[in-house]
Amino acid sequence: MPTKQVTATGVKVFEKRSVFNTTMDRMLDFHQNPRALSMLTPPPIFVQVLRDERSSLTHGELEFRLWFGPFPVCWLARHEPGPNATSFVDRMIEGPMALWEHQHIFREVAGGIELTDRVTLAHKSGWAGLVTRLIFDGLPLRMLFMYRHFRTRLAVRKS
């Protein structure tokens, strides 16, 4: 698939890190669950999966629509290997941002599994970039990943 040229403004890196009292198997199983994206998306946003051609966390594409009330935002992400053996990357191929690369890095540490969500992002120029700054940056981005880590903690905790 050809890569689109998009004018971007300012590349940023956002990172959220937490330690979960769980095992690597539980963490990976949760992220492989086809419902994980819906479980990790905070209300009132609704996720509609349009196409899921992932063969694993590290291979394939996922096309979905995020509904912000009546406003749809379409997204095509390619899943790729991450920086270590227990990580993966979802990279936006088509969507609202000029750049969105989300690394999910899992690492065994004392007390369980450390999850680092590292997002490298850039906004498009013009009105589209103004809108995405309100939804996918700053406080909304921090709140999104606080919610995602909360939901992950509930899903992977040891019984």
Provide a descriptive summary of the structure in words.
This protein has helices spanning 24-32, 36-39, 127-135, 138-156; strands spanning 8-20, 45-52, 60-68, 71-81, 87-94, 99-109, 112-124. It has 159 residues and is α+β, with helices and mostly antiparallel strands. The protein has one domain (8-156): Alpha-D-Glucose-1,6-Bisphosphate, Chain A, domain 4 (2-Layer Sandwich), CATH 3.30.530. A seven-stranded antiparallel sheet has the order 1-7-6-5-4-3-2, covered by helices on one side. Strand 2 and strand 3 (60-68) form a beta hairpin. The chain is globular. Residues 1-6 have low confidence and may be disordered.
Task: Note the main attributes of this structure.
159 residues; alpha+beta; Alpha-D-Glucose-1,6-Bisphosphate, Chain A, domain 4; seven-stranded antiparallel sheet; 26% helix; disordered N terminus
